[in-house]
Amino acid sequence: EIQVNYNGVDFKEIESRMNPESIRKILERFEFSEENRIVGGLFRLEPGKRPELWLEAFEYCRKEDQTLRGIIVGGGRMESSLREWVKDSGLDMYVKIIGETDDVGGWLSEMDIFLYTSITEGLPNVIIEAQGFGVPVVSTSVGGIPEVVNDGETGVLIDSSSGEDLGKQIIKLMAEESFSEMGEASKIEARERFSISNMVSGTCEMYSRV
Questions:
Q1: Which of 67, 135, 203, 205 is the most buried (most CB within 10 A)?
Q2: How confident is the model at residue 198 (pLDDT cuts 50, 70, 90)?
Protein backbone atom coordinates (compact mmCIF):
# COMPACT_ATOMS: atom_id res chain seq x y z
CA GLU A 1 0.00 0.00 0.00
CA ILE A 2 1.41 3.38 -1.03
CA GLN A 3 0.95 6.20 1.45
CA VAL A 4 0.76 9.66 -0.07
CA ASN A 5 1.79 12.45 2.25
CA TYR A 6 0.33 15.71 0.94
CA ASN A 7 1.79 19.18 1.30
CA GLY A 8 0.78 21.05 4.42
CA VAL A 9 -0.38 24.66 4.21
CA ASP A 10 0.22 27.04 7.12
CA PHE A 11 -3.04 28.98 7.01
CA LYS A 12 -2.24 30.83 10.25
CA GLU A 13 0.97 32.18 8.73
CA ILE A 14 -0.92 33.29 5.57
CA GLU A 15 -3.55 35.00 7.74
CA SER A 16 -0.88 36.80 9.78
CA ARG A 17 0.15 38.66 6.59
CA MET A 18 -3.38 39.76 5.67
CA ASN A 19 -4.22 43.44 5.33
CA PRO A 20 -7.87 43.57 4.20
CA GLU A 21 -8.15 47.37 4.55
CA SER A 22 -5.31 47.90 2.10
CA ILE A 23 -6.90 45.54 -0.44
CA ARG A 24 -10.35 47.15 -0.08
CA LYS A 25 -8.72 50.51 -0.92
CA ILE A 26 -7.13 49.02 -4.05
CA LEU A 27 -10.50 47.55 -5.11
CA GLU A 28 -12.17 50.94 -4.56
CA ARG A 29 -9.52 52.52 -6.75
CA PHE A 30 -10.36 49.93 -9.42
CA GLU A 31 -14.03 50.92 -8.97
CA PHE A 32 -14.97 47.35 -8.04
CA SER A 33 -18.04 47.45 -5.82
CA GLU A 34 -19.84 45.02 -3.49
CA GLU A 35 -22.12 43.94 -6.34
CA ASN A 36 -19.14 42.79 -8.42
CA ARG A 37 -18.34 39.13 -8.01
CA ILE A 38 -14.67 38.40 -8.59
CA VAL A 39 -13.18 35.64 -10.70
CA GLY A 40 -9.64 35.35 -9.37
CA GLY A 41 -6.39 33.68 -10.27
CA LEU A 42 -3.09 33.39 -8.46
CA PHE A 43 -0.21 31.94 -10.48
CA ARG A 44 3.11 32.67 -12.14
CA LEU A 45 2.59 34.54 -15.40
CA GLU A 46 4.42 31.96 -17.46
CA PRO A 47 3.37 30.09 -20.65
CA GLY A 48 2.65 26.78 -18.85
CA LYS A 49 0.02 28.48 -16.68
CA ARG A 50 -1.78 29.70 -19.83
CA PRO A 51 -2.82 33.16 -18.60
CA GLU A 52 -4.21 33.91 -22.08
CA LEU A 53 -6.69 31.00 -21.61
CA TRP A 54 -7.61 32.48 -18.22
CA LEU A 55 -8.46 35.77 -19.94
CA GLU A 56 -10.45 34.04 -22.70
CA ALA A 57 -12.53 32.23 -20.07
CA PHE A 58 -13.09 35.48 -18.16
CA GLU A 59 -14.06 37.33 -21.34
CA TYR A 60 -16.71 34.68 -22.07
CA CYS A 61 -18.06 34.97 -18.49
CA ARG A 62 -18.29 38.71 -18.56
CA LYS A 63 -20.36 38.65 -21.74
CA GLU A 64 -22.83 36.46 -19.85
CA ASP A 65 -22.67 38.43 -16.59
CA GLN A 66 -21.70 42.10 -16.84
CA THR A 67 -21.16 42.40 -13.08
CA LEU A 68 -18.18 40.03 -13.03
CA ARG A 69 -14.68 41.36 -12.47
CA GLY A 70 -11.30 39.64 -12.73
CA ILE A 71 -8.19 39.74 -10.55
CA ILE A 72 -4.92 38.03 -11.49
CA VAL A 73 -2.30 37.94 -8.74
CA GLY A 74 1.27 37.04 -9.69
CA GLY A 75 4.26 38.14 -11.71
CA GLY A 76 6.44 36.55 -14.35
CA ARG A 77 7.80 36.77 -17.87
CA MET A 78 4.36 37.30 -19.42
CA GLU A 79 3.25 40.15 -17.15
CA SER A 80 3.80 43.02 -19.61
CA SER A 81 2.41 41.11 -22.62
CA LEU A 82 -0.63 40.12 -20.54
CA ARG A 83 -1.25 43.75 -19.57
CA GLU A 84 -1.14 44.60 -23.29
CA TRP A 85 -3.56 41.76 -24.06
CA VAL A 86 -6.00 43.03 -21.41
CA LYS A 87 -5.81 46.54 -22.83
CA ASP A 88 -6.18 45.45 -26.47
CA SER A 89 -9.18 43.27 -25.58
CA GLY A 90 -10.92 46.26 -23.97
CA LEU A 91 -10.93 44.45 -20.62
CA ASP A 92 -8.79 46.92 -18.67
CA MET A 93 -11.81 48.25 -16.75
CA TYR A 94 -12.79 44.71 -15.71
CA VAL A 95 -9.57 42.72 -15.22
CA LYS A 96 -6.72 43.90 -13.03
CA ILE A 97 -3.27 42.32 -12.87
CA ILE A 98 -1.88 42.83 -9.38
CA GLY A 99 1.65 41.52 -9.79
CA GLU A 100 3.46 39.78 -6.95
CA THR A 101 2.20 40.15 -3.39
CA ASP A 102 2.89 38.96 0.16
CA ASP A 103 -0.82 39.14 1.00
CA VAL A 104 -2.05 35.94 -0.66
CA GLY A 105 -4.82 35.44 1.94
CA GLY A 106 -6.12 38.98 1.54
CA TRP A 107 -6.58 38.61 -2.21
CA LEU A 108 -8.04 35.10 -1.97
CA SER A 109 -10.59 36.42 0.56
CA GLU A 110 -11.93 38.82 -2.07
CA MET A 111 -12.41 36.13 -4.74
CA ASP A 112 -15.71 34.37 -5.42
CA ILE A 113 -14.32 31.79 -7.87
CA PHE A 114 -10.74 30.66 -8.32
CA LEU A 115 -9.94 29.98 -11.98
CA TYR A 116 -6.86 27.89 -12.80
CA THR A 117 -5.82 27.12 -16.37
CA SER A 118 -2.46 25.35 -16.13
CA ILE A 119 -1.46 22.96 -18.93
CA THR A 120 0.38 20.64 -16.53
CA GLU A 121 0.66 20.60 -12.76
CA GLY A 122 2.02 18.68 -9.77
CA LEU A 123 0.09 19.27 -6.58
CA PRO A 124 -0.45 23.04 -6.53
CA ASN A 125 -0.45 24.61 -3.06
CA VAL A 126 -2.25 27.63 -4.43
CA ILE A 127 -5.39 25.57 -5.12
CA ILE A 128 -5.30 24.21 -1.56
CA GLU A 129 -4.89 27.81 -0.32
CA ALA A 130 -7.83 29.07 -2.41
CA GLN A 131 -10.07 26.31 -1.08
CA GLY A 132 -8.84 27.00 2.46
CA PHE A 133 -10.16 30.55 2.09
CA GLY A 134 -13.55 29.22 0.97
CA VAL A 135 -13.12 29.88 -2.76
CA PRO A 136 -14.57 27.17 -5.08
CA VAL A 137 -12.15 26.21 -7.86
CA VAL A 138 -12.78 25.88 -11.59
CA SER A 139 -9.72 24.25 -13.13
CA THR A 140 -8.34 22.23 -15.97
CA SER A 141 -8.10 18.61 -14.81
CA VAL A 142 -4.34 18.01 -15.02
CA GLY A 143 -1.62 16.42 -12.88
CA GLY A 144 -2.38 16.23 -9.17
CA ILE A 145 -5.27 18.73 -9.24
CA PRO A 146 -7.99 16.00 -9.08
CA GLU A 147 -6.37 14.88 -5.80
CA VAL A 148 -7.05 18.25 -4.16
CA VAL A 149 -10.34 19.32 -5.77
CA ASN A 150 -13.42 17.17 -5.17
CA ASP A 151 -15.21 17.61 -8.49
CA GLY A 152 -18.75 18.81 -7.83
CA GLU A 153 -18.13 19.33 -4.11
CA THR A 154 -15.29 21.84 -3.69
CA GLY A 155 -15.04 22.88 -7.32
CA VAL A 156 -15.34 21.81 -10.94
CA LEU A 157 -12.67 20.11 -13.04
CA ILE A 158 -12.80 20.21 -16.80
CA ASP A 159 -11.02 18.20 -19.49
CA SER A 160 -10.91 21.05 -21.96
CA SER A 161 -8.61 23.86 -23.02
CA SER A 162 -11.44 26.01 -24.31
CA GLY A 163 -12.05 29.42 -22.76
CA GLU A 164 -15.74 29.08 -23.57
CA ASP A 165 -16.01 25.71 -21.79
CA LEU A 166 -14.28 27.07 -18.69
CA GLY A 167 -16.41 30.22 -18.80
CA LYS A 168 -19.63 28.20 -19.07
CA GLN A 169 -18.66 26.22 -15.97
CA ILE A 170 -18.06 29.43 -14.00
CA ILE A 171 -21.46 30.87 -14.95
CA LYS A 172 -23.17 27.55 -14.21
CA LEU A 173 -21.46 27.18 -10.85
CA MET A 174 -22.29 30.70 -9.68
CA ALA A 175 -25.95 30.17 -10.55
CA GLU A 176 -26.29 27.02 -8.45
CA GLU A 177 -28.10 27.24 -5.11
CA SER A 178 -25.35 25.21 -3.49
CA PHE A 179 -22.64 27.71 -4.52
CA SER A 180 -22.10 29.20 -1.03
CA GLU A 181 -22.17 25.72 0.56
CA MET A 182 -19.45 24.69 -1.89
CA GLY A 183 -17.24 27.51 -0.58
CA GLU A 184 -17.83 26.38 2.99
CA ALA A 185 -17.12 22.73 2.08
CA SER A 186 -13.89 23.83 0.35
CA LYS A 187 -12.71 25.64 3.44
CA ILE A 188 -13.40 22.78 5.85
CA GLU A 189 -11.92 20.13 3.54
CA ALA A 190 -8.72 22.06 2.77
CA ARG A 191 -8.01 23.13 6.33
CA GLU A 192 -8.58 19.66 7.75
CA ARG A 193 -6.87 17.63 5.03
CA PHE A 194 -3.90 19.86 4.29
CA SER A 195 -3.08 21.27 7.71
CA ILE A 196 0.55 21.43 8.83
CA SER A 197 -0.26 19.10 11.75
CA ASN A 198 -1.63 16.48 9.35
CA MET A 199 1.49 16.73 7.21
CA VAL A 200 3.75 16.35 10.25
CA SER A 201 1.83 13.38 11.68
CA GLY A 202 1.71 11.79 8.18
CA THR A 203 5.48 12.19 7.80
CA CYS A 204 6.11 10.72 11.25
CA GLU A 205 3.84 7.77 10.46
CA MET A 206 5.63 7.17 7.17
CA TYR A 207 9.06 7.15 8.87
CA SER A 208 7.85 4.84 11.64
CA ARG A 209 6.58 2.38 8.99
CA VAL A 210 9.96 2.46 7.25
A1: 135
A2: low
